[in-house]
Sequence to fold (196 residues):
Amino acid sequence: GFTFSNALTASSTLSVTGATSVSSDLVVTGNAAFGTTSANYMNFYGNQINIPNNLGFIGGNVGVGTPSPSALFSVGSSSQFQVSSAGAISTNSTLSVTGATSVSSDLTIAGGLNVTGNTYLATTSGNVGIGTTNSHNMLEVLSTTTPQMRVAYDTSNYFTQAASSAGAVTFAATGASAGFTFSNALTASSTLSVTG
Fold:
């Protein structure tokens, strides 16, 4: 056999009929074709890749747009989109999904989430947590910054709900005609204080 300890450059066609092992980087600056028939060709033509059959990578990471992928599968010049060996997906840039998205396991969002369509959260066997990954009820909002919740008509008319470190709960209405109206009976199981 032949072992090349330095770079090998082929100015014309380079044909390999047996198994080929590359222990370091393989850089293709022109066109490259792998396979013998159109049914099993893997073609690299400029910026396009055509793979009609399965392609497996054993060992190392795969990078698209980066020569130094930091995860099992990385996309972007600094691995902005990553898929780990455990299947976890992460991105430090915007992730845009135009179709329906189904998540059968936990979904953790560390940044902002903008949804322009309908959102359905199936909680038949789990809860929704905001500020916590261990929610105790169907919906839990956890924060030491008060108020924890705000329901608004617009930026000037809204009410807030706050829970203190001692368990005291405060409802506050803000607006031109701020106040609370109960359209049904109000029952207080403890002291009810009205200051106005």
Notes: The longest strand covers residues 158-163.
